[in-house]
Amino acid sequence: MTDNSLPTRSDRLESETKRKKRGVALFLRDLLVIFVVALLISFLIKTFLIRSFYIPSGSMETTLLVNDRIIVNQLEPGLIPITRGDVVVFRDPGGWLLPQAPVQQNPIVAGVDWVLSVVGLSAPDSNDHLIKRVIGLPGDHVVCCNALGQMSVNDIPLSEPYVNLPTGQTQVSKDAFDVDVPAKSLWVMGDNRYNSKDSRYNGDTPGKGFVPIENVVGRALVISWPLARWTWLDDYPEVFRGVSAETD
N or C: where does the chain have the smaller number of CB atoms within 10 Å of the terminal CB? Predict the structure, then answer.
């Protein structure tokens, strides 16, 4: 014998409650999946494509200012070759940076900073990296300065519009130099030429002032913050065009 009685009001309410709970559980599950996938994609992008850094010093002024945030293309130099004029972020080759004291953060701030660093939106290791402009590639002969105060690469004098000089100065470097860039290395300089501890002033380090290409994290593409300073970073190919035609 079967029971064909209609469901009671309490049965209907119980069934509706179960459906709602199941709907909420499915929504939370889907939300968690979306979050994990987004985190994974962001992690992969940060690891292999782009990441963020902030500018801790004034050595690249006025191209870059202290506390600017930049987006760095990590495909260079792995898949895209470095060119003269590129603004690159690189790990300390050894002896360029003074020892840094650990940054003290409360657990909540440290946790948030860690999550942001995983997805490339924070750069807690910015103080362990440097940012300069590439002047000399492997094999280049870089000399400063000629009678007009210009630097030359492979005997081609450069007219550098990005250089920041003190008022009244015309020489693009306070100190003269004459170097040949070794294989697999770079000669780099800050745009703020009289206030940049770059290749010129690291000759007493293990790398003799040259930066191994393998230390380059990537090329700085854009100023992403503050929004008022959002702009693409130029590598000024016209400055080095004559050099490329002469040597490449």
Answer: N
Residue from 52, 59, 185, 196 carrying the catalytic annotation: 59
The reported pTM is 0.76
Whether residue 151 contacts residue 143, with contact meaning beta carbons closer than 8 Å, is answered with: yes
CA distance 212 to 2: 84
pLDDT confidence of residue 9: 59
Tell me the C-alpha to C-alpha distance, in Å, between residue 156 and each of 31, 84, 117, 239.
Answer: 59, 13, 42, 10
**How far is residue 20's CA from residue 224's CA, in Å, rounded to a whole number?**
43
Among the listed residues 46, 52, 122, 132, the single catalytic one is 132
**Cβ atoms 155, 243 nearer than 8 A:** no
Q: What is the pLDDT of residues 192-212, one digit of tens each?
A: 999 999 999 999 999 999 999
d(CA 71, CA 131): 12
Burial of 147 (0-12, 13-18, 19+ CB in 10 A): exposed
Instruction: Report yes or no: 231 and 69 within 8 Å, Cβ to Cβ.
Output: no
Q: Is 132 a catalytic residue?
A: yes
Specify whether 59 is catalytic: yes
